[in-house]
Amino acid sequence: MGIMDFWKPARGQATQSVRAEPPLQAADADVQSERQWNGIVTAGRSKTGVRVDEKSALSIPATLQALRILTGVFAMTPLHYYERRQGGRFAVLEETEGKLFKVSPNSHQTPFAFLELLMADILLAGDFYAYVSRGLDGRARVLTRLKPGTVLVAEYFDRQEGTILFYDATLPDGTHERFPARDIFHVPGFSRNGLNGLNPIQYARDALGGAIATSDHTAKFWNKGGRPSTVLSTEQKVGSEDKRRIKEDWSKLYAGQDGEMIAVLDQDLKANFLTHDMRQSQFLETRQFQVVDLARIWGVPPHLIFDLSKATFGNIEQQSLEFVIYHLGPHYARLAQAATKAFAREGFYFEHVTDALVKGDLKSRMEAFWLQRQMGMVNGNELRSYENKPDIAGAAGTDYWMPSNFQVAGKSAESPPANGENE
After folding, report:
1. Dihedral of the CA atoms 92, 98, 102, 103 (nearest 10)?
2. Backbone φ, ψ for residue 376 (5° rounding)
3. Separation between Cα atoms, residue 178 and residue 183, nearest integer Å
4. pTM across the whole model
5. What pLDDT was estimated at residue 280?
6. Is pLDDT larger for residue 240 or for residue 56?
7. DSSP letter, residue 391
8. SS3 state of residue 303
């Protein structure tokens, strides 16, 4: 700009455009980093004083069984890729998107292992993240799981476009970048902000800490040979140094696994054992209640984690059906809709097939098959496919039945031919 430019009208000067990046706002200021789980940053402690993190939570047998049931059953349910066509829907396996969750999500995991890990991340960390590798045609081909704590969600709000998400992620090769939403496959769990899932370990810290503390108390009690606390008393005066020495000697000789050894006391010392009434303190009832409480945390029926105190053995089948509908159903919908939004092309969608999980007993299945066959809903080969049996050749397997006493609504029944008319 020359000195003469100052004399020009301001409205006549060209304005230099400056690119302004949208201000990004972190979705959750308390997003955990992976270092917290490695002990570099102190993990949260419950009111019992017990340190509660992912590893300590998994040390509870009820938690381990609940997660094993939820992740295993979830992973064994196939996620199909369907196309809507005239005449119904059709499963599409040869499409690239359909192979992600049905054939090979990446080079080292089976679909079962990938879905099992996906579910475990949602249950333990609240969110599942995966980096999406795309081909030259722009279609997703590989999903690489990102460890919990290595991804931070950032949001930008535009009045016309609404909320736009970005992801600050650290990839397995150590690089850290900000990625658009199309490059990160995100499946959040139950959420209060619509962006991040709630971490059950954080929100149920006290309940988990109580179970861990109870288990630790049991282990310490039996480590002492099942003996209660001991008090050594004497009528003589004992100095502080002698007290320390006597305490160390007693602990060294008679505590721990050597608690059954014979104690020899001098200086008129007497051993008094502090008794604990486990029945009066309801120790077993406490542990029993904690199992049910853990079942509530992870969303699994108590009988599936081997708590049969309320089971009647006549409602197990109904409880198993409820497990699929009420416990796994929301997780099925959560993943199917997230996959549809992220990968499905127009006219396609993902959906879980839970037929194998809701099968009744053999008698009930056969009765249902017989009704479907009589009503003309299925043919023989379709029924045989339900039981993993090969097709029958010819019309015997492809024909549909129609009851002879049925007729089309609105049409009069045709009268039978007269005697000798067709002769």
Report:
1. 100
2. 80, 20
3. 10
4. 0.71
5. 59
6. 56
7. P
8. helix
Measured CA distances, 68 to 14, 34, 116, 122, 368 (Å): 66, 23, 9, 13, 32
Q: Which residues are bridge partners to 131 per DSSP?
A: 144, 184
Q: How far is CA 229 from the centre of its chain?
A: 42
Count the Cβ atoms, other than its own, within 10 Å of residue 146: 22
Q: What one-character-per-residue DSSP string does 280-310 give?
A: TTTHHHHHHHHHHHHHHHHT--GGGGT--SS
Q: Would you give the end-to-end CA distance of the chain in angstroms? A: 111
Query: What's 1-56 look like in SS3?
Result: CCHHHHHCCHHHCCCCCCCCCCCCEECCCCCCCHHHHHCCCCCCECCCCCECCHHH
Task: Determine the Cα angle at 303 with ends 300 and 308, to 5°.
Answer: 150
Q: What angle do CA 203, 206, 209 make, to 5 degrees?
A: 120
Supply the pLDDT for residue 11.
44
Integer Cα distance of 405 and 310 in angstroms: 49
Q: Which two tokens stand for residue 110?
A: 């089976």
What are the backbone angles phi and psi of residue 246, rounded to the nearest 5°?
-65, -40
- The pLDDT-based confidence of 10 (bands split at 50, 70, 90) is very low
Pull the structure tokens for residue 311.
Answer: 């089971």
56-65, 138-147, 213-222, 225-234: which is most confident: 138-147
Amino acid at 51: R
Where do the domains of the chain lie? 22-220+278-358, 229-274, 362-406
155, amino acid identity: E
309 Cβ contact list (under 8 Å, min separation 6): 288, 302
